[in-house]
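This week, look over our next protein:
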Amino acid sequence: MLLNLAPTNANYPSMEDIYRGKVRVRVCGLLINNKGILLLKHLHLGPKGHIWAPPGGGVAFGHQATDVLRQEFLEETGLIIEVGNFLFTNEYIDEKYHAIELFFEVQAVDGQLKLGTDPELAADQQILADIKYFNDFELANEDQDNLHNLFRETRSLTLLKELRGFFKFHRRES
């Protein structure tokens, strides 16, 4: 079952209108295979203007987390996924944003990999800029400030799949 999470009117709010000053529950999928981990480049986030983060999105009232994750993956990556085990929770808090992120293992079962869009944002306010797989070597050599905070704990894909618990991965202050 696919969910229509797009706004019903043409007046799209800005990213800050949607997320600033609110607690947001997000679901994120860790798609790890022989190519590496699938990450999306999100503009306007992080100290250097972008971060690479796993696909996922916000859970709206009344929607099941796993259904939202499947929908977000399809919209952002073009992939149809099977949601596997729940792995861990990350709480992120800074002066603007507060997110509770639920991380799941996922596997691609169909679809064609392509950079998608965020239906919550207008076409001229899209923040998704690129999509690619990162292997252990590429993760180790990527600037830490350009990676999601979960990579503060480990950049090993093997160890990443073994993380369990509640974390507060913090971004280093610039």
In short: The first strand starts at residue 23 and ends at 33. The two ends are 43 Å apart (CA to CA). Helices lie at 15-19, 65-77, 136-141, 157-160.
